[in-house]
């Protein structure tokens, strides 16, 4: 499926550690706009209905074995018909040597050809993961992202409410920092989100009164992560005495981002509250809920049972 986002072919080649056999004249500008890939077995037999040349094409052992059954003249004709299409790139898997006829037609039609020693199915999986990450739907939001006890926590709230200060205290307590101020959120698949920092400000945090600091330099490489799944949303807001806050946790608050519904909680902020400890507890409680235990519901059930049984 086509995406409104694109990624440079050269970036994909570098990430997947492909061996370059030949590059086209527009290699540095060539972009990929779909996470779908194609094994051109049917095309090499002459069937081109529903063929999408914009996909990365992969020749595996099956295609190579079939091509070996053809005469050099037949292979040349098949590759010429194939290379006439403006294919994004051709990758030859399993460490199989490229057919001379393939390289001849690639030269004639100015096509990109690469090779990999990986098994075809493994390479296809890696390629889909890489392309899905680059082409995923995304938004950039004003928030802070940290990983707390293995849970990706997106901290939101108005400017000055204490998002960065809370994240800093969590970092000091051994948790991981991903992004401050701007979080780029991507929907990698239909029911999960991944957050990361824009590359320009990666590892940097702004603290009022101090300025900009580099977390990696201050606290070490173990204090940061490039990205993480987002498991929950924590909304910080100034304490409002007129507002009734959930005290039992029986209300299941949610936040929808890019069509994905995430559990969310609202934490009122006022002097004396240790927000880092509260967020640690929220992360552990969220994990416990995913494992099937809800403390608030269990307590409510126990109270109901005691009342019904006449124990109170």
Record keyword descriptors for this entry.
312 residues; alpha/beta; 6-stranded mixed sheet; 9 helices; 31% helix
Shape: elongated
The mean pLDDT is: 93
Order of helices and strands: EHEEEEHHEHEHEEEHEEEEEHEEEEHH
Q: Order of strands in the sheet with the most strands? A: 11-9-10-17-19-18
Structural classification: alpha/beta
> Which bin fits the share of residues in helices?
25-40%
Q: How many strand segments? A: 19
Give me the number of helical elements. 9
What summary fits the major beta sheet? 6 strands, mixed
Q: How large a portion of the residues is in β-strands, by DSSP E?
A: 25-35%
Uncertain stretches of 5 or more adjacent residues: none
Task: Give the distance, in angstroms, between the N- and C-terminal Cα atoms.
Answer: 61 Å
Integer-rounded radius of gyration: 27 Å
Sequence-ordered SSE layout with sheet pairings:
Layout: E1 2-8, H1 9-15, E2 19-22, E3 31-34, E4 37-38, E5 56-59, H2 61-68, H3 72-83, E6 89-92, H4 100-109, E7 113-115, H5 120-135, E8 138-142, E9 144-148, E10 151-157, H6 163-172, E11 176-179, E12 182-189, E13 192-196, E14 204-207, E15 211-214, H7 215-219, E16 227-229, E17 232-238, E18 254-257, E19 260-269, H8 275-290, H9 295-308
Parallel strand pairs: 4-5, 5-6, 6-7, 10-17, 17-19
Antiparallel strand pairs: 1-3, 2-7, 8-12, 9-10, 9-11, 12-13, 13-16, 14-15, 18-19
Structure description:
This protein has 312 residues and is of the alpha/beta class. It contains nine helices and 19 strands. The protein has helices at 9-15, 61-68, 72-83, 100-109, 120-135, 163-172, 215-219, 275-290, 295-308, and strands at 2-8, 19-22, 31-34, 37-38, 56-59, 89-92, 113-115, 138-142, 144-148, 151-157, 176-179, 182-189, 192-196, 204-207, 211-214, 227-229, 232-238, 254-257, 260-269. The protein has a six-stranded mixed sheet. A five-stranded mixed sheet has the order 2-7-6-5-4. Helix 4 links the parallel strand 6 (89-92) and strand 7.
